[in-house]
Amino acid sequence: MIRTKIAVAGVLGRMGQNIIESAQLNDGVEIVGIFDKSPISQDLLVSLKLKSDIAVTIDDAFDRADVVIDFTSPSALFMFTESAIAHKAGLVVGTTGLEQKHFNLLQQTSKATKIFYAPNMSLGVNSFFQVARDTAAKLKDYDIEIIESHHKFKKDAPSGTAIKLGEEIAEQLGRTNKDFVFDRQQQVSERKKTDIGFSSIRGGNIAGEHTVIFHGEHESIEVTHRAFNRKIFSDGAVNASIWLSLQENGYYDFKDLLKS
To answer: Is 140 among the catalytic positions?
Structure first.
């Protein structure tokens, strides 16, 4: 069996270590490199049960890997996309908080190598997006609000998953992100019919919860996805890396994976 050679960025972080654990339980991949902003020690390799001869620098990791998995920060993408092109490595990106310049960068990079981006790597969440679209199509005149909850360490708000959820619903209804409302304190006015509102909660150790509420005149319908363990995200990222390794150069997302 040919295994996909992967490298993991940000291995000193919680998500990086979750990806290592998922990869070690997946027979379809081989970990050939890890790296972070700080040097990787032999003690860390031992604690993560990794081979002592794997790559521990960015250049070496990108050189050895078929696919590199990145959940670090938007600013890191500029360096990682350059390395992906230079070493002809695929890149699976799960980083949230991206701006249009980052998406432009990923699209440009996909002309020279393979790029897979998803703000949420869970199979359940990506199925949830479709359920939300289908519901929105049937309840076009209902008011829409999105509520997301995450652990106290999450920096960006609303979450990338919440924004993606809003984008999916907006596309279904012929709306755009100009209809998104993030802070009602700044708006002393009635709710517009086309508004898609967002609310964020941070606290404790919540892995991730997303709810879209469709408010009618005399009823409300809620659709919710709850993550009980971050393993669903790391498992999804590892499986995405296997899938990406078999594709041609290009820009892919979870919809492409689900179609295959």
So the answer is: no
pTM comes to: 0.84
The whole domain housing 198 covers 123-227
Q: Which of 151, 154, 215, 231 is catalytic?
A: 154
Pair (25, 97) in one structural domain? yes
Alpha helices in 139-253 (DSSP H): 160-173, 231-245
Question: Given a cut of 90, is residue 260 above it in pLDDT?
Answer: no
Chain segment 206-229, per-residue pLDDT in tens: 999 999 999 999 999 999 999 998
Phi, psi for 63 (deg, rounded to 5):
-70, -35
> Count of domains in the chain?
2
Catalytic site residue 154?
A: yes
- Same domain? 169 vs 200: yes
Tell me: do 55 and 163 sit in the same domain: no
Q: Please give the structure tokens belonging to residue 236.
A: 């999804």
Residues in CB range of 186: below 8 A, 6 or more apart: none
pLDDT tens-digit series, residues 51-77: 999 999 999 999 999 999 999 999 999
What is d(CA 149, CA 11) in angstroms, rounded to the nearest whole number? Answer: 25
179/80 same-domain check: no
The one catalytic residue among 150, 164, 210, 225: 150
